[in-house]
Design a protein that fits this description.
Helix content is about 80%, strand content about 0%. It is mainly α. It has one domain.
């Protein structure tokens, strides 16, 4: 019976995570195309303006969500176990998050001009030293003698425009997590990884081709946010019965607030850490330096898609297992998901670490200087995947304060390293700081899950993706001189093909685990 339940759970994880991962990869690929379009059609300064405005908005939206996304997942399951209406949990979470989002959105609108000046301090001082790993002239960047130019004015209006989207994005996020609590990830993936990025890309291309560069940067983000919110709201109402009445009339629950607020700290600190490199580069070098770093950061972000893909479906399963006091099954689930995440992320990590230059050249010649940053950011994304869903397991087990302290410590380390390394090494210094913080955070989470819950993510089967990755890296490195002689697009496609074939060939040679063969091949 337990074996049958585990097999069903494995199938659920694989099916939902497969849909989620495919959606995340598609969404990230479209965003990759969006960044490329902005870089080639509008220039690196416009790309930097977009990156800085997006960084501010995502931090603000995280404050607005206030941990109620995870609370919706957890309390939809708790309310169902208690015989209460799950729509009340979803409605309360959405209402609470919407109220939280209004204040920071209005503050951004009010302080948009000072924020634009803060991130435009050094665009006139940029030289070749700031493009890659060479030292950055911080004193020149911070001098402030240059007037607020086109980048600053555009950033001012971008902040105003993007702030309008905050309540829509917050509502869509919590609604998607409420559906996730019902084991349905598809609506959230469609809204966030299909509708929003495709709408952004299409609108940007149309406006850019119409020779209106300002609106091409200002309009698409807000319009896409409204479209995705309206779509997922309809899905929530149809599939769970949660509508405006449930949102306005859901009874208060102190347990949800007590659970959500520590997670607000975790999410806020994590989001600040995620965008800290872009923000500090903007403060020191202005939108151009942030724009030159953005392709490396977002390309490495493709690797990070594996974590939300798996944690999205694992979170409600872990919550249910913890509610049933099934620690042993939680450990098995944790190790299984960690192995699958490492298996998936290894070949992409190898490719980006061995061949970063062709990928960045797709954005334009100047962006290849950020190749060292891409190597370091790819390593950071792998460290995140290897840490697995440790943060999710701790949160769903009710240890939100522990995850918050972890994130706070990692953020402090990243700030210290960034302040030390960015003036010396520019974009590579920012990436090195991100890598150091992620290594520390992953180590803390792994240790705490082991000590607090008695669960370990390590298993003997992890040697297989490690050995396959090492063999693939060696082969790709031998092919590197030949590949670099090809054009950027041909080199990238050829490298991906070699990397994929070698990695999965070696993985099959080392043989899949029994439960993996059972799931993929349908063999018992």
């Amino acid at each position: 019976m337990n074996r049958h339940r585990s097999a069903n759970r494995n199938a659920l994880i694989a099916g939902q995570a497969g849909i989620s991962y495919g959606g995340f990869i598609f969404g990230q690929a479209v965003r990759f195309g969006f960044n490329m379009a902005v870089a080639r059609m509008l220039g690196e300064e416009s790309l930097g303006v977009y990156a800085l405005a997006l960084a501010v908005m995502q931090i603000v939206e995280t404050f607005g969500v206030a941990g109620y996304d995870a609370a919706a997942v957890r309390y939809v399951n708790i309310y169902q176990a208690e015989g209460r209406k799950a729509s009340d949990a979803a409605g309360l979470a959405i209402r609470s998050a919407l109220l939280m989002s209004l204040v920071p959105a209005l503050l951004v609108m009010f302080f948009s001009a000072p924020l634009a000046r803060l991130f435009n301090g050094g665009s006139a001082s940029l030289g070749s030293a700031s493009l890659g790993s060479a030292p950055l002239d911080v004193s020149a960047s911070l001098g402030g003698s240059a007037p607020l130019g086109g980048g600053g004015t555009l950033l001012h209006f971008a902040l105003l425009s993007y702030a309008v989207a905050v309540p829509f994005n917050v509502a869509a996020t919590v609604a998607g997590h409420a559906l996730q609590g019902h084991r349905d990830l598809v609506p959230k993936i469609v809204a966030t990884q299909l509708i929003a990025p495709v709408a952004m890309l299409v609108l940007t291309l149309l406006l850019a081709f119409a020779a209106v560069p300002g609106p091409a940067l200002l309009v698409p983000y807000t319009a896409a946010s409204v479209l995705s919110c309206l779509w997922i709201w309809r899905q929530l109402r149809l599939k769970t019965g949660t509508g405006i009445r449930e949102v306005l009339g859901a009874p208060a629950d102190r347990r949800m607030k007590a659970f959500a607020f520590p997670l607000l700290g975790v999410s806020l600190v994590s989001m600040i850490a995620y965008w800290l490199d872009v923000l500090l580069l903007g403060m020191l070098g202005g939108p151009v330096l942030s724009g030159l770093y953005q392709p490396a950061a977002r390309t490495a972000g493709l690797l990070r898609a594996v974590l939300p893909a798996f944690s999205g479906i694992a979170a409600p399963l872990v919550a249910a297992l913890q509610a049933g006091d099934e620690s042993a099954e939680t450990g098995r689930l944790y190790r299984l998901v960690t192995r699958w995440m490492v298996l998936l992320v290894t070949p992409a990590t190898v490719f980006l670490m061995v061949l970063p230059e062709p990928v960045l050249l797709l954005f334009g010649p100047r962006f290849s200087a950020s190749a060292p940053a891409l190597v370091l950011l790819a390593a950071a994304a792998f460290a995140q995947a290897f840490g697995g869903i440790a943060g999710t397991v701790l949160s769903m087990a009710g240890h939100g304060r522990v995850t918050f302290l972890n994130a706070l410590v990692a953020l402090a380390v990243q700030v210290a390293l960034s302040v030390l390394l960015i003036p010396l090494y520019g974009t590579a210094g920012a990436a090195a700081a991100s890598l150091g913080a992620m290594l520390l955070l992953s180590a803390l989470r792994l240790l705490q899950v082991s000590r607090v819950l008695g669960v370990s993510s390590f298993s003997g089967a992890l040697w297989k993706p490690a050995a396959a990755g090492a063999g693939t890296a060696l082969l790709l490195w031998l092919c590197r001189p030949w590949l670099l002689g090809l054009g950027p697009a041909v080199s990238s496609v050829s490298g991906i093909a070699i990397c994929t074939a070698a990695y999965f060939g070696l993985t099959l040679l080392f043989r899949l685990e029994a439960e993996d063969r059972e799931l993929i091949l349908g063999k018992h």
